[in-house]
Structure formats: C-alpha cells, structure tokens
Amino acid sequence: MSATDFSFEPVFAVLAVAAAVAYVRSGERPARWRVAVFATGLVLIVASLNSPLETIAAKRLLLVHLLQNALIADIAPLLVLLGLTPAMRAWVERHGGRRVRARYAVVAWVVAWYGTHIAGFYDWALRSGWALNVEHAILIAAGLLFWWPLVTGRISTAAALAYLGAAFVASSFLGLAFIFSRRPFYSFYEHAPRLWGLSPIRDQNLGGILMNSEQTLVFLLAIGWYVSRLLSEEWAEA
Amino acid sequence: MAPVVLAALAAALFLQGVARLRGRGRADVAGRDRIALFGLGLAVTVGALVGPMDRLSDSHLWAHMLQHVLIGDAAVALLVVAVRGPLLVFLLPAPVLVQVARARSFFSLLLRPRVAFALWAANLAVWHLPYLYDLALRHQAVHDAEHLCWVVAGLLVWTLLVDPGSHKRLTAGGRIALAAAMFAAGEILADVLIFSFHPLYPAYPGHTDQQIAGVVMMVEQLVTLGAVTFVLLRPRLRSARLVAA
After folding, report:
1. Residue B162 distance to chain A (closest CA, Å)
2. DSSP string, A78-105
C-alpha cells in the first residue's frame, strides 16, 4: 500500500456525521464562530482517521501516529466542546455531563494517554486493525472528558490553572520518553516499511518532539487564557 | 574563592539583621525558619559554584545548566523568601541603606514588571547564544559576569514574585502571570536544547548531555515557579472550595 493511499476508520466518520446532524437539528442558531469551531473539531477527527495520514500512521511511521493521537485527544475534543452553545452544554450536563468531576477527568485523561501508548496495547492495536478504533475512541473520549469541566466553566479560574498545570506536567513524561529513547518501543514500527528515510529510532524521537511541542503549545495557550481571566477577575474585584 | 567570601559577607549581613530585629523583640519575623532558608540559599549558591558541581560543569552542559538555574533561580528564590518583611530593611547597615534609598528611582525602574521580565528573558536568551556561551567558558572574567547577570536577573523577577517588601507592584494574578511568562520563556530554551538533533555548543559535544540540560532547566522551573504559583493560588482554591460547599 502506497503512503499516499487513503485508509479509513469509518466508525468515526459516521459518528462525526451524527454529531453534525444533531448539532444542526438542535433548533438553535449558534454563532458562526461556534459553528466553525465545532466543524473544525469534527473535520480534524474525520480527516486524521480517514486519509493518507491514517495509512502512514497505521502502516509506516510512529511520528504520524503520534500526531494523529495528539490531534484527536487534545485539540479536536476542545474544539468540538467550544463549538457547543450554552444550551447544548446544559443539555449534556443534564444527560450525564454533571457527573464528570474535574479530579477524576484529569486522572482518566492521563491514564488513557499513558495506557493507550503502552507497547503491548499499541502493537496489538496496530496489528489487529479493529483495535485501533478502540485506541482512538479511548483518546477522543478522554479528551472530551478532560476539557468538559473547563469548557462548562464549572471550576474556578484558580482550579482551572491547577488542573491544567497538573495535566501538563503529568502528560509530558511520555513525550520525553520518546525523545530520550535509544531503542524503539513498538516492534510494529521497528519492522514496518520505512518512509522519508527515517530510522525507527529517529521516527520515535521525532514523534516525542512533536507530541511535546503540541502539548506545550496547547497547554501554555490554555494556561495563558486562564491567567488573563484571573487578571480580569482581580480587576473586577478591585 | 570569591563565592565563599561573598556568601560569608551575605551571611554576616543577614545575621546582624536577625540580631538587631531580635534585640527589638521581633524574633517572630527573624526566626530559625528564616535562618534555615537563608542558609539553604547560600549553601545552594556556594555548592553550585564551588567544588564538584563546578568541575562537572566544565565537561557537562547539564551540570552547567544546573549551576545557572540554581544560582539564578532556586537560590535567589530561597534568599528572597528568607528576607521578606522587616528583615529586608535590617539586612543592610544604615549608611548603605541611605545610599540604596538615593538610588530608589533606579531600582523602581528595574523592578517595573515589564522591565524586570524583559531583562530576565534577555539574560536567558543572550547567555545561551553559542558564541557567548563559549566565550564565557574560555574567559573567567566573562564567566563571572555571566553568573552575576544570572543572580541579578533572578533577584529582579523573584523580588516581584515574592514581594519581600510588600510593595504590591503586582497583584497575585500578576505574579502568577509573571511566573507563567517566565516558564513559557524558559520552555522555549529548554525545547531548543531538547529538540535539537545536533550539539549547539562546541565545548559540549554530547547530544544527550544537551537534551538532559534542557530537561534540567524545565524541571527546575517547574519546581520553583510551580511552587510559587501554588502558594499564590492556594487562597483562591480554598475560597472556591468554600463557595462550592
């Protein structure tokens, strides 16, 4: 299979279409920016799992697989949730969202992040094919859980900063492990056909760099946003 | 030996300040905890600049990085926390304090948050340029100047973060913002060192050594800036919990 061939995880395309239909039929008229943000989140999920990116991720390079994971676990869920209107969020809150506690959400996200990257699970998911859907579903669900307490505004600004700081620190070790590794973690990629002249170890190191860069950017932006909100609150209190 | 002499001088100044305050019945603001913090700050500074750490820094970039973050960040933070409150004034003999007071406008300018942060960030960036880094390694005078810059830049930002004189130049949120900005700036340098595939400094040819240096910087910043952020956030976290309850 050529690296430019398309591969599909159709279940996520179907779920994205269902989410889009539910969004349109909600009876609301969301602001344009919300529609754009929601759509971008869905497109990121669908495009990264149903495109040549999927082919390269599932057959050739860990680097691209880690990019895919970062997109669907960190960025896409946040965009999808930011695209919901307050009424939509209230509906989700009434239907189970209220049960999501920040302290458990952050733990679930970290466990999912590390758990899905354990060598045994990762190799099994890549070899079986269908289990790759499970891996990606876990990452998307964990991302939605993680961002939910923040997007709903249920936790204070100070708590949000502590929440983001804890998640940033806790998650960064995985990327560092990839960067500093001197032997490949995943036997699947060790024996996969190479692309762009990247050796398995260089592929893994680059994947770690990509993962750490993406998380640093996302978390520092989120922390920056909450710091500015903290300053605004102080200004209002003064 | 210069670091030991300077540390001894600082210790003497500190102890006379403690003695004067205690003589006025203010042992509550010059207690053993302050002595321990100040002593630890000096020990960290001297330990980083003298002995095995200094020798190790000649051959390992990570040790050199540790040396810098210890003298410019961790030790300075400990020292500033130790002298907060009246001790800050009693630290210097009256004639010196008068001279300092005369230069008040200059210090006020340096302690403007944007100025202090800009100087700190510029110091961080400039001294990590490969040319200057290697120059400092070849010439002791430049190396000493480099270390002095680290300490001065650290003193500026940590004075704002800890606010030992209760000048309230920044609100709690402003201090958290400064800590976040410092972490973000430090993270850029750490990432350059960690992500680079080639050694950047000719004197330190080890690639892994360079990557570890980046991690050292990141971890040290997480500990020091994370601690100050947690202390600043704690009252708000408590009040949020009370409101929720």
Report:
1. 18
2. HHHHHTS-HHHHHHHHHTTGGG--HHHH
